TrEMBL record:
<dbReference type="InterPro" id="IPR000740">
    <property type="entry name" value="GrpE"/>
</dbReference>
<comment type="similarity">
    <text>Belongs to the GrpE family.</text>
</comment>
<feature type="compositionally biased region" description="Basic and acidic residues">
    <location>
        <begin position="21"/>
        <end position="30"/>
    </location>
</feature>
<feature type="compositionally biased region" description="Low complexity">
    <location>
        <begin position="40"/>
        <end position="50"/>
    </location>
</feature>
<feature type="region of interest" description="Disordered">
    <location>
        <begin position="203"/>
        <end position="232"/>
    </location>
</feature>
<keyword id="KW-0346">Stress response</keyword>
<keyword id="KW-0143">Chaperone</keyword>
<feature type="coiled-coil region">
    <location>
        <begin position="66"/>
        <end position="100"/>
    </location>
</feature>
<comment type="function">
    <text>Participates actively in the response to hyperosmotic and heat shock by preventing the aggregation of stress-denatured proteins, in association with DnaK and GrpE. It is the nucleotide exchange factor for DnaK and may function as a thermosensor. Unfolded proteins bind initially to DnaJ; upon interaction with the DnaJ-bound protein, DnaK hydrolyzes its bound ATP, resulting in the formation of a stable complex. GrpE releases ADP from DnaK; ATP binding to DnaK triggers the release of the substrate protein, thus completing the reaction cycle.</text>
</comment>
<protein>
    <recommendedName>
        <fullName>Protein GrpE</fullName>
    </recommendedName>
</protein>
<feature type="region of interest" description="Disordered">
    <location>
        <begin position="1"/>
        <end position="57"/>
    </location>
</feature>
<comment type="subunit">
    <text>Homodimer.</text>
</comment>
<keyword id="KW-0963">Cytoplasm</keyword>
<dbReference type="InterPro" id="IPR013805">
    <property type="entry name" value="GrpE_CC"/>
</dbReference>
<dbReference type="InterPro" id="IPR009012">
    <property type="entry name" value="GrpE_head"/>
</dbReference>
<keyword id="KW-0175">Coiled coil</keyword>
<dbReference type="Pfam" id="PF01025">
    <property type="entry name" value="GrpE"/>
</dbReference>
Length: 232
C-alpha cells in the first residue's frame, strides 16, 4: 500500500451506528400496576379524533352558514307568496268592481226605457200596436230581455211586499192567502236588481159562512118532537 492509499483511507469518515432504542408501549406499568400518563394522553387524542362523546354536539361553521342561507331563502319565498296572493286579490277586486260598474250602467239605461215599454204594453192591450210598429216593439223588448231585463207581476202570483206595491185590497174565499188579482203596472228586474216594483191589487182570504150547529144533543129529542109527545 502506497502513501497515497493511506491518505485516502484517513480522509474517509468513520461509520456511525445509531443506538437501538426499545420503547415500552404497555399502558400499565408492570412494576406499579397503574396506568401510565402517556397512555392517558393517547386515549384522549384517540377520543378527540374519533368524534364527540355520547350526548355531546359539535358546531360546524359551514353548516351554520348554510342554515342562515336556507332561513333567508324561506323568508324571501314567503314574501313572494304573500305578494302573489295580494296581487291575485287585487285583480279579483278590480274585476268585480268593473263588472258592478258595467251592470249599473246597463241598469240605468234600461230604467230610462221602462216608460216606453209601458206605452207599448198599453198600446198592445188596446189593439193599437200593429204592423211595423209591433215588429219594432217586439225587437226592442226581445233585445232588452237578452240584456238581462225580466218582467214580473202577474195575476195569480203570491203577494210579495219586496217586489209588489199593493194599491188595492179585497177579500175572497176563493184564495188561500194574499194573492195578486189585478196588475196595474208591471214590475221589472235587471239581473238581481229590482228596477221597479209592480203596482198590484191584492185579494186576501175571507172565511166562508159557517155551517149552523145543531143544538140537539145525541140521546135527546128535538124540541118539536118533545112538544108533540107532551100533547099526546
Amino acid at each position: 500500500m502506497t502513501g497515497k492509499h493511506y491518505r485516502e483511507a484517513d480522509e474517509q469518515e468513520p461509520e456511525v451506528t445509531e443506538p437501538v432504542v426499545v420503547r415500552d408501549r404497555r399502558k400499565i406499568d408492570p412494576e406499579t400496576g397503574q396506568v401510565r400518563p402517556q397512555a392517558t394522553e393517547e386515549a384522549s387524542a384517540t377520543a378527540e379524533a374519533s368524534g364527540p362523546e355520547l350526548g355531546a354536539t359539535t358546531v360546524d361553521d359551514a353548516v351554520g352558514v348554510q342554515s342562515d342561507l336556507e332561513k333567508q331563502l324561506a323568508e324571501r319565498t314567503a314574501d313572494l307568496q304573500r305578494l302573489q296572493a295580494e296581487y291575485a286579490n287585487y285583480r279579483k277586486r278590480v274585476d268585480r268592481d268593473r263588472e258592478a260598474v258595467v251592470a249599473a250602467a246597463k241598469a240605468s239605461v234600461v230604467n230610462d226605457l221602462l216608460p216606453l215599454l209601458d206605452d207599448l204594453e198599453r198600446a198592445e192591450a188596446h189593439g193599437d200596436l200593429t204592423g211595423a210598429f209591433k215588429a219594432v216593439g217586439d225587437k226592442l223588448v226581445a233585445g232588452l230581455q237578452r240584456a238581462g231585463l225580466e218582467p214580473f207581476g202577474g195575476e195569480g202570483d203570491p203577494f210579495d211586499p219586496s217586489v209588489h206595491e199593493a194599491v188595492q185590497h179585497s177579500t175572497s174565499p176563493d184564495v188561500s192567502g194574499p194573492t195578486v188579482t189585478t196588475v196595474l203596472r208591471r214590475g221589472y228586474r235587471f239581473g238581481e236588481r229590482v228596477l221597479r216594483a209592480a203596482l198590484v191589487g191584492v185579494t186576501d182570504h175571507e172565511p166562508g159562512a159557517e155551517t149552523p150547529v145543531d143544538a140537539s144533543v145525541e140521546g135527546e129529542l128535538p124540541v118539536e118532537q118533545l112538544s108533540n109527545e107532551n100533547q099526546q
